[in-house]
Amino acid sequence: MSDWSLKNPYMSQITENYVLNGKGSKKETRHIVFALGDSGLDYKVGDALGVLSENPPHIVEELIQVQGWDRNQLVSTHNGERDVYTALKKDFEVHMANKKFVQSLAHKVVASGMRISLSIVARSRNGEEWSADDEGDLPPGLSPGQPSDDPVAKVEALVVDAKAIEDYLWTRDYVDIMREFDVKYTPEEFLELADRLKPRLYSIASSHDAHPGFVELTVGIVRFEYNGRVRGGLCTQFMADEIDTSGAPIGVFMSPTKSFILPENKDIDIIMVGPGTGIAPFRAFMEQRVFDGGKGRNWLFFGDQSSKTEFYYQETIEGWMDSGDLFRFTTAWSRDQAEKIYVQHRLIEHGAEIWQWFENGAYFYICGDKTYMAKDVHRALISIAEEHGGMSNEDATHFIEKTMMREQKRYLRDVY
Ligand SMILES: Cc1cc2nc3c(=O)[nH]c(=O)nc-3n(C[C@H](O)[C@H](O)[C@H](O)COP(=O)(O)OP(=O)(O)OC[C@H]3O[C@@H](n4cnc5c(N)ncnc54)[C@H](O)[C@@H]3O)c2cc1C
Ligand SMILES: NC(=O)c1ccc[n+]([C@@H]2O[C@H](COP(=O)([O-])OP(=O)(O)OC[C@H]3O[C@@H](n4cnc5c(N)ncnc54)[C@H](OP(=O)(O)O)[C@@H]3O)[C@@H](O)[C@H]2O)c1
User: Fold this and answer.
1) How far is the CA of 372 from the centre of ligand 2 (A)?
2) Are the C-beta atoms of 339 and 312 separated by less than 8 Å?
3) I need a surface site. Which of 17, 29, 177, 248 has the fewest CB within 10 A?
């Protein structure tokens, strides 16, 4: 037992940090290993690791420069008194702007009494430009690319429309907005508006029995660029860019799961569906099943863009196939052919056998993208129950959602 927690994180060292993708990949997915040292920290497969990170130094520097702040000025924060640089780096999320800040612009712009030329280009989340037909979705006067000389009207129009704010924030951070409106805040005013820095959770990709003293993750690094400025995810950039090179300690804590667990009976079969970084807990599950040595069969569905560049843990998986520990391995490479092939298509193709496994008491696990993949896989399971279980849509839905998921607790999800 140990007392490490979100409030009292263990300062771990990263001992390995490498990219899993092959050359030419559009992604940057990393395998990251943290040493647990003498922390006494323990974990089980299915648990997640909480990671505390910091803001990228270039964003902090730009903010200080754009606002003309004194980096050594002391400010009070929820973590005590700090200098401005440290507060911006460690205590608040300054890599992405929030709605509260955009709403504060109304007051700032009016108070400053300025009139500047402003061009608001709204962009939808999937990156498509707004067309003339979309203009109805924008507040009056916010048509794409139309310059205006009335910032007050623009800000007022923006702050009353939640979707316009969301689209506006998708392509801009604090520095972009401060430059666009030429507004000045005191450090205290700004920190009052910024969000407190939050930890991020990662599904653990190792079994502690197989890697005593270490905890391993599979992390998709979030990077993008707008307005000619490099940006990205707070924690993933920190782990990829700052910790890798400096070897500095990083705060971690365990986030145990109650539900995403292996069956107690080691002779029960399991089906694991984990495309992309969704593979993480299933690497851990497989290591644990090999360590425990039960008779239950293991079937892994994995996929990503291409077998050439995203076949994470290929050697390990092939080793499990050769040893017979992995009974079946089914892949869905979405971009290796003209039409998209996703894990749910593979589930449907193998529907008859999956249904047999279900009838035999198999557990079904899913990990990865919550927004699209998990929903599509859920629908695929219902259609398998209809087609191979001979059920009506209503009965199939009841079987998957009530019987397997809620009552028997053998349809388990770790989605984000
Ligand atoms: C239980 C659980 C387990 C998880 N396990 C894993 C795991 O094993 N591996 C893993 O990689 N992740 C995992 N995650 C996700 C992880 O917690 C983080 O959310 C993820 O790494 C992003 O964190 P970040 O701090 O780098 O990005 P953030 O700073 O939080 O930024 C992410 C946000 O960036 C914005 N964004 C993204 N792309 C763009 C773009 N092109 N333009 C503008 N804005 C954009 C979006 O608003 C997005 O929500 C898990 C999450 C949970 C809840
Ligand atoms: N913020 C970002 O910039 C960013 C970028 C990537 C991922 N993510 C998020 O990060 C998490 C993990 O990402 P990841 O890189 O590990 O994997 P991912 O983006 O979920 O992709 C893994 C595989 O799933 C496929 N896929 C796309 N839509 C799907 C659907 N509806 N059903 C089934 N499969 C689908 C992808 O194909 P295609 O890509 O060929 O369609 C790819 O082959 C997810 O939550 C994802 O949404 C965020």
Assistant:
1) 8
2) no
3) 248
